[in-house]
Design goal:
The structure is a single chain. Strands 1-2-8-4-5 form a five-stranded antiparallel β-sheet, with no helix packed on it. A three-stranded antiparallel β-sheet has the order 3-7-6, with no helix packed on it. The chain is elongated, with a radius of gyration of 19 Å. About 20% of the residues lie in helices and about 45% in strands. The longest helix has 22 residues.
Length: about 110
């Protein structure tokens, strides 16, 4: 895993950790995790810019695992983890499309 040394200073324990997909759409995945101790969830989804993550209700930074995949630290206990893909290019495209549409309407009306 690549990143800040403090991120990977999770104690190794004999405990167990599990994670499963609770809900998935084209731009969002919700995991439910259960762990006996703090752990790192590695998701085999390419870590492109535009991905954001929440552990519980708290936004958390996404780290790189194996130079390609996404990883977040999870606390002990049962915790939801949500990954959402919202690239800025999509927002920019919507803004440009709305401006162009408004311009065309203005030309037709005038």
């Amino acid at each position: 895993v690549v990143g800040d040394a403090s991120f990977f200073a999770v104690k190794k324990s004999a405990g167990t950790s599990t994670a499963w997909v609770k809900h998935q759409t084209e731009n969002q995945t919700l995991f439910e995790t259960r762990s006996d101790s703090p752990a790192v969830l590695v998701w085999n989804e390419a870590a492109f810019p535009g991905w954001r993550a929440w552990v519980g209700e708290r936004p958390v930074p996404i780290r790189y695992a194996n130079y390609l995949f996404q990883a977040v630290e999870i606390p002990a206990g049962k915790t939801p983890v949500r990954f959402v893909y919202e690239p800025q290019t999509t927002r920019l495209g919507i803004f440009i499309s709305l401006c162009a549409g408004a311009f065309l309407v203005a030309i037709i009306v005038i």
